[in-house]
Amino acid sequence: MTTRQPCFFGCSVEAALSVIGGKWKGVILFRLLDGTKRFNELHRMVPGVTQRMLTLQLRELEADNVVHREVYAEVPPRVEYSLTEFGRTLEPILMGLKQWGDGYKELLVNLREDQSA
Q1: Which stretches does DSSP call E strand in 45-110?
Q2: Distances from the Cα of 60 to the Cα of 25, 45, 63, 99, angstroms
Q3: Residue 18 within a domain
Q4: Cis peptide, bond prior to residue 6, ω within 30 of zero
Q5: What's the rounded Cα separation, in Å, for the pair 44 and 27?
Q6: Would 68 be classed as within a structural domain?
Q7: φ, ψ at 71 (rounded to 5°)
Q8: Could you tell me the CATH number of the domain that includes residue 106?
Q9: What does residue 89 show for φ and ψ, rounded to 5 degrees?
């Protein structure tokens, strides 16, 4: 596992966004707040993400110590993903983003209604 050096980042916000930024990581982390998920379950919960991109994002989140990947020695192999203890510390941030997103979606609906009137 590769660990980034603290001096690599210009500021703490840059460090945080390097972990949770991008189109899919926040959504993946939000879905894992509910508990452990298998790959295909996550894939269904994140519409629009390709299997390859989901795999890449999960690997990056695992390398950043926020997601745990558990492989079971079964046939066929079973792989489950969950938040690490450190990953769980993102919950208030993700819930804040959800709340902000709910408000933003409402604002857009209101703006659209105002433009239609």
Answers
A1: 67-72, 78-83
A2: 9, 19, 5, 25
A3: yes
A4: no
A5: 12
A6: yes
A7: -105, 125
A8: 1.10.10.10
A9: -65, -10
Question: Would you say how long the chain is, in residues?
Answer: 117
Residue 105 domain boundaries: 8-116
Number of domains in the chain: 1
pLDDT tens for the chain, 117 residues: list them: 455 555 677 888 988 999 999 899 999 999 999 999 999 999 999 999 999 999 999 999 999 999 999 999 999 889 999 999 999 999 999 999 999 999 999 999 998 888 887
Distance between terminal CA atoms of the chain? 56
Strand, helix or coil for residue 48: coil
d(CA 52, CA 56): 6
Tokens (6 digits) for 9: 């980042």
**Residue in the block written with tokens 């596992």:** 1
- Give the model's pLDDT for residue 50: 97
Distance, in Å, from the CA atom of 88 to the CA atom of 90, rounded to the nearest integer, reads: 5
- For residue 103, give both structure tokens: 């408000």
